Amino acid sequence: MSVANDDEPSYIDYETFLDPGFSPAAFANTLVLATNNPNDAPLDLSTPLSRVLFDIQEIDSHIDVLTTRSAIPLLTHTKEQTEASGRIVGELDTQIKALNDSYKQLEKEVIQKHAEAEEVRLVASRLWETLKLGRAVGRALQLGRQLEVQHAELTGSASTTVTTSSASYGIERVAVIRTLRDNIYLPTERSVRESAERIIREFSMGSASGTLTFAQSEETRARTVSGLTTLYLLSPTTLAKNEKWSPTLMLQSLESYLRTALQSSTASLSRALATLPSLERTLADVTARCQNVVALEAVLEATKIPSHPLVQGQQATPKTGGNMLQPLLAYLETGSLASYFWRTMASNLAPRVQEIMNKGGVSARTLRTNRQSVGEAIKECVVKGCVLPSAVAGAASGDRGRNDEMKDGEKSGRWEREVAVMVGSVVNNIGR
Which of 123, 196, 361, 428 is the most buried (most CB within 10 A)? Predict the structure, then answer.
């Protein structure tokens, strides 16, 4: 198809130039070969160059003619487009102005009111936090006053006055709460803890001279359970990460009781072995101490673990529904308190016996002479020491409740390992 008009014929081959596969290099090579002999040297390039320049001038002239003819339609079209664009811009300006006015109205009616509402919400939130704080402080003061009155009734001490002052955000930072903690809670907690520890420390269901009556033993049991529960609940609940909670105050108090009984028994029995005439009386005292340990074990076994309000979930070491004996046995790594008592005392007593024998003299000779009778006396002491006091046996559960019905052979058989350990710690170190 020719681009030139019919009344303006052109020799330019527009089809060649419009071909998508047109190559300038190939076209130039064709022109050179058409105007020269390939064997000529040098080639004449002026003729093909003139041809190209003439074609360019022809195309330029043709463009000029077309532009001149179409100038008026082009200008008319451009004018129409410009006028249309102007009308569009005018319409857009009106719409943009209306949009800006709407936004200002919206800002006035919504955004400003939202900011005011946000301020109101913040004020209401802070008022609610203040109200909750006030209620918590009031509740704490009420409980503090009740605690103060109850403690004063129990101890007969004068009450402490709590003074109020300005409060700040956070109950732990409220001055009156700090005053309540320092003047009432901490002193009361310390007093209650000391009383509970004293109850455990003074626990006794009898002595070598006699046992308590049933009423006295029940009173002692009730006081002991109260002390144990108090120490259980007062045990610290602040734990390190992944640390299991345990009733440390209760366990430490019970361990101290056992340690005191063991130290007293070991010391007195060591002295008695050096002076045999006092051995019978000393063994009776040791038997009474062990019976108190067995009685304490019965009380612990019969006392269920209370629910601790500050210990939840997996933090609590004792399982729900267990008794207070379980955590103590786990803490001491033993199967029973009687076994722990005799085995620990045996390990402490062996060096004392060796010391007596190494010193020699009358004490060593007397002890060696009475070796067999001393062993029998210690065996009887162990067997009797593992029997519950009569006032406790009736109320205890399981096998302990039938101690009075057990024969001597059954009693000694049950504790034969403890008997062997205790007798061996003395007899085996006496020599022959």
Answer: 196
